[in-house]
Inverse folding.
């Protein structure tokens, strides 16, 4: 079990790197699909040479470990297929296409309503039936839609469980894409959420100066923005952690000389740049 958990941890770290790379969603999807397949292959090879010590270990693996890369594999395949097939014409046609995809997911959830309720309510009383292998009546238990069963690497419902989780992610993705069609701000926000490649390398206190300066100047949302909102945005864009910026600002206020060192440096450097540009 330790080896399987190590494989999962490595996979999750690598997946986070892909998702925060700033690459477009199609490239991210392709990389994530390959990574997820490789992780599942590593799981299977490990199971060929090791055995679970208890039924509880086996249930935990198929329910809580294998399901993660399998759900991501299904999710990114759906995202890739969607992005490659969505119409490139009018906004209304795009909306209808997305609505159709959402209806298909809803139909899937209704088809598997009982198992979905079992999962969503965190029930465990049927886990031995759903997440253990090698049952004599196994082929009668496999959910509708499963065409092939690998006796080493499948239980009757592990694939269905992962697909449900994947479709939950995909449903959120589709709703965000739908909302972004009419809202340019959401489109920009989605790009930001892919994470930029910009890293803040100046002192954190300098960025905190800028955060407070923008807040005091009321440049966002018609003067309705909190300091935390601005700080969170900058931390996301510049891939940094500002820590306790309220405490740092208190220290800025106690500076003996200039209290706005970074802002004055910005103004000076910009003036120099403007002057040189005329020469």
């Amino acid at each position: 079990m330790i080896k399987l958990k190590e494989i999962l941890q490595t996979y999750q770290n690598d997946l986070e790197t892909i998702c925060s790379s700033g690459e477009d969603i199609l490239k991210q999807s392709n990389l994530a699909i390959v990574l997820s397949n490789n992780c599942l292959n590593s799981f299977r090879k490990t199971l060929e040479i090791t055995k679970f010590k208890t039924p509880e270990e086996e249930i935990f693996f198929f329910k809580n470990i294998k399901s993660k890369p399998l759900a991501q594999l299904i999710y990114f395949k759906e995202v890739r297929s969607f992005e490659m097939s969505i119409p490139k014409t009018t906004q209304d046609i795009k909306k209808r296409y997305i609505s159709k995809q959402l209806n298909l997911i809803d139909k899937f959830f209704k088809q598997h309503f009982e198992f979905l309720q079992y999962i969503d309510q965190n029930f465990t009383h049927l886990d031995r039936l759903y997440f253990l292998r090698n049952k004599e009546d196994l082929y009668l238990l496999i959910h509708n839609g499963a065409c092939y069963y690998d006796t080493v690497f499948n239980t009757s419902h592990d694939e269905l469980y992962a697909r449900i989780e994947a479709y939950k992610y995909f449903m959120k993705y589709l709703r965000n894409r739908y909302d972004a069609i009419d809202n340019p701000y959401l489109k920009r926000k989605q790009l930001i959420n892919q994470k930029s490649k910009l890293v803040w390398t100046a002192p954190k206190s300098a960025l905190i100066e800028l955060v407070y300066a923008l807040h005091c100047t009321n440049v966002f949302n018609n003067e309705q923005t909190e300091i935390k909102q601005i700080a969170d945005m900058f931390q996301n864009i510049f891939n940094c952690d500002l820590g306790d910026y309220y405490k740092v600002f208190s220290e800025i206020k106690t500076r003996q000389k200039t209290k706005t060192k970074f802002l004055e440096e910005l103004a000076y450097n910009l003036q120099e740049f403007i002057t040189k540009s005329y020469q």
